[in-house]
Amino acid sequence: MTAPPESGQPLSLQLLADMLRIRRMEEKCAELYGAGKIRGFLHLYIGEEACAAGALRALAPEDNIVATYREHAHALLRGVPLRAIMAEMYGKAAGCCRGRGGSMHLFDAARRFYGGNAIVGGGLPLAVGLALADKLQGIARVTACFFGEGAMAEGAFHEAINLAALWRLPVLFCCENNLYAMGTALARSESQTDLCAKAASYRVAAVEVDGMDVRAVHEATRQATQQVRAGAGPFFLEYATYRFRAHSMFDPDLYRDKAEIEQWKQRGPIHSFTAQLKAAGELTEEAFLALDASAEAEVADAVAYAEAAEMEPIADLLKDVYTSQETS
Amino acid sequence: MKISYREALRQALREALSTDPRVFLMGEDVGRYGGSYAVSKGLLDEFGPERIRDTPLSELGFVGAGVGAALGGMRPIVEVMTVNFSLLALDPIVNTAAALRHMSGGKFSVPLVVRMATGAGRQLAAQHSHSLENWYAHIPGIRVLAPATVADARGMLVQALADPDPVVMFEHAQLYNLEDELPDDWQCDITHAAVRRPGTQLTLISYGGSLPKAMQAASELASEGIDAEVIDLRVLRPLDSDTLTASVCKTHRAVIVDEGWKTCSLAAEIMARLMENCFYELDAPVARVCSEEVPIPYAKHLEDAALPQVAKIIAAVRGMLNV
Ligand SMILES: Cc1ncc(C[n+]2csc(CCOP(=O)(O)OP(=O)(O)O)c2C)c(N)n1
Predict the structure, then answer these.
(1) What are the chain B neighbours of A327 within 8 Å (beta carbons)?
(2) What is the pLDDT of residues B2-45, one digit of tens each?
(3) Catalysed reaction per UniProt (chain A) (predicted)?
(4) Ligand 1 centre from B29 Cα, in Å?
(5) Which domains does chain B have, with CATH numbers?
(6) pLDDT value at A2 more than 50
(7) CATH no. for residue A152?
(8) Is residue A33 part of a domain?
(9) Dist. CA A190 → ligand 1 center (Å)
C-alpha cells in the first residue's frame, strides 16, 4: 500500500497531500454509499479539508483527539490506517471497531483517537475529562476536541468550557464552523453568532481563523497548542469553513442557496492552496499529480482490502459488551 | 386510498395546527429542513415559523421550554430527533413534566406532547438505534404511546393533545414508510391495547416496530396450522393489563416481542403481570423475543442478529408448542 507522505517533505506539500488524501477518501465513500457498500449515516468532509489537515499536523502524537460523526478525516490524519477505516465502513471484522461502529464511530486507542461521537456535543465533556486526567497525572498533553458550531447551543458545550476554564485544563476547542447544523443556519440557532465572543465569555482565549486556508489553520493551531501546552488553560479556535456536500447522504440539501455553495467552492481549500504553491514555484503540475495519484492509490488499496475482508462471525455478537466476557 | 405512516402523522399535525391555535410544533430542523424524518415537510409554508419552530441543538432547553409553554396555556408538540438524544432532555420530562401535577397537589397540569423516533434496523449503530421506550414507561405521570399502524399514527395525536397530562409518543423509524389504507374510523382511544389478529392457540404481544414482525410471524404460523392471536400494546403506560389477561385466559400461552433489551424491559413487566393476573391459566412459561444484550452494532448481519426477527418469533412459538 502507498505510504502517507513522509515528514521529510516540506510542510506545505504534507498539508496538500493530507487534503488530497481526505478528498479522495471522501469521494470514494460517497461512491461506495451509492453502491450500497457503506450504509447507515455518512457525513462527508468535502470542503472542510483544510481544518483537519492544518490542525492535526500542529498536534503531537501523544495528544488526545476527540471528534464527531464527521470524523473520517480526523481519524485518517491521526494515522488510523485507511484500510481499517474503510473496513469499518464496510462493517467488516478488520474495521477499526470490528464493524460495530461504522462511519460515525471510528476509534483507535493506540493513536489516542477517542471518536467518533454521534451525540452532538457529547465529545466536549469527554475532552474535559481526558484533559483533567492528564493534569492530575502530571502528563503534559493537549486534548483537541473537534465539533461543529451547532454543538455550541448544547448545554454540554457551556458546561464543558466552563469546567475547562475553571480548572485551567489543557483543552483545545476546535470549532469547525461550517455555518449549518443539518438544515439550521447559525443565525437561526444562536442569539450570539460571534462564536469567539461566546467562548471568551468563559474567559477562554478565542481566535477565529480562515478554515479554507490550510496554512492559516495550521499556524493558528500551532500557536494555540503551544499556549495550552505551556499551561495557559483552554483555548478556543473557530475555523470558518463550509461543507460542499449535504449534511449526510439522506439530506436533500434544500435549505442552502446554490449560489452560496458555488461561492464557497470558489474558495475550495485544495485548489486555492495548489494555485498558491504553484505560483510560488513550490509545486509543479507533475508533483501535484503524483500526490493525487498516491492518494488515489491509497484509497483503491483500502477499498480492495475492505472488499476482501471477513465479516465478524455472528457468534461474536455479544463480544466486547463487557471487558470480561460475562453477559447478564 | 393508501397513505404512509409519515403522511398520517403529517395529517394529524396539520389538523391539530388548523383546529387549535394553541398548538405549535418545535424541535431540531422541523421547519426549514422539513423534519429529520420528513414528517413536518411543508408545514412551515402552511403555518409559518412561529408555529413550526426550528430550535437549536438544545434538547434540555427546548423540551423544558415545551413544559413551560404547556403550563402557560399552549399545547406544544415537541419533536426530539430520536430517543437517544432525548436522554439529554430526561430531566424536564421526568423531573418536571411527569411530577408537576402530583407535586403541586393537582394545581398544575402539563399538557405537553413529546414525539420521537425510536428503534433500529437502519445500520445507524448504537447512538441512533436504541429502543428505550421502557425507560419512559417506568415513569408515573406521563402517558406513553407507540403507534404501530397508519390509523394509530393518524389518530393518536388528537387524543394525546386532548390529554391534560404529558404524553410521550414513540414512532419507530422503520414504520415511517409503511403504507396502508387509512380507515374512515381512524379515531382511536389511548387507553387500550388492540387485538390486531384474533387467534386461539397462543398470544403474541408486541408494539411499535415489532408489530409488523409479530403479524408476519402469525401469518406464517397460520400456514402451518398454528393460530396465534396478536396484541398491539399501543399504550406502554399505563399498560392495559385487562386486554392481555383476557387474551391469555383464552389462549393459555404468550410470547412477548419487544425490541428493547430483555433485562428490565417492558417484556419483563408484562411477564410479571401475566404471572400476577393469570398464572393458573398458563399452559407454558411465558416466553419473550427481545434484542440481544448488546449496544446495537452497525454491520448489517450483526444488527439483524441483535434484533427480534420473524424467524426468532416463530422459533419461540414452536418451542412453546413443542412442534
Ligand atoms: C444530541 C443530538 N441532537 C441531535 C442530533 C442530530 N444531528 C446530528 S448532526 C446534527 C447537526 C450538527 O451540526 P454541527 O454541530 O454544526 O456539526 P456539522 O454537522 O455541521 O459538522 C444534528 C442536529 C444528534 N446527533 N445529537
Answers:
(1) 293
(2) 999 999 999 999 999 999 999 999 999 999 999 999 999 999 99
(3) N(6)-[(R)-lipoyl]-L-lysyl-[protein] + pyruvate + H(+) = N(6)-[(R)-S(8)-acetyldihydrolipoyl]-L-lysyl-[protein] + CO2
(4) 10
(5) 2-181 (3.40.50.970), 194-321 (3.40.50.920)
(6) no
(7) 3.40.50.970
(8) yes
(9) 14
Residues in contact with B105: Cβ distance below 8 Å, sequence separation at least 6, in sequence order = none
CB contact under 8 A, A189 and B54: yes
Q: In three state form, how does the secondary structure of chain A look? A: CCCCCCCCCCHHHHHHHHHHHHHHHHHHHHHHHHCCCCCCCCCCCCCCHHHHHHHHCCCCCCCEEEEECCCHHHHHHHCCCHHHHHHHHCCECCCCCCCCCCCCCCCECCCCEEEEECCCCCHHHHHHHHHHHHHHCCCCCCEEEEEEHHHHHCHHHHHHHHHHHHCCCCEEEEEEECCEECCEEHHHHCCCCCHHHHHHCCCCEEEEEECCCHHHHHHHHHHHHHHHHCCCCCEEEEEECCCCCCCCCCCCCCCCCHHHHHHHHHCCHHHHHHHHHHHCCCCCHHHHHHHHHHHHHHHHHHHHHHHHCCECCHHHCCCCCCCCCCCC
Q: Inform me whether the pLDDT recorded for B204 exceeds 90.
A: yes
On chain B, the residues whose CB falls within 8 A of the CB of A181 are 28, 56-57
* Per-residue model confidence as pLDDT tens digits over A20-47: 999 999 999 999 999 999 999 999 999 9
Overall pTM > 0.90:
yes
Assigned domain for A317 exists: no
Which residue type sits at A226? Q
Pocket-testing residue among A103, A104, A117, A120, ligand 1, by greatest number of atoms within 8 A of Cβ: A120
B130 is catalytic: no
CB contact under 8 A, A155 and B61: yes
Please check whether residue A283 lies inside any domain of the structure.
Answer: yes
Residue B116 CB–ligand 1 contact under 6 Å: no
Ligand 1 atom index nearest CA of B85: 1
State the Cα–Cα distance between residues B302 and B284, nearest whole angstrom: 31
Contact assignment for A121 to B84 by CB distance below 8 Å: no
Q: Whose CA is nearest to atom 17 of ligand 1?
A: A148
Compute, in degrees rounded to 10, the torsion defined by CA atoms A145, A147, A152, A157: -30
Cβ(A70) to ligand 1 under 6 A? yes
Backbone angles phi, psi at A111, to 5 degrees: -95, 10
Which of A153, A183, A314 faces B56 most closely, judged by CB atoms? A153
User: What is the domain extent for residue A291?
Assistant: 11-245+253-310
Among the partner-chain residues B29, B124, B302, the one whose CB lies closest to the CB of A183 is B29
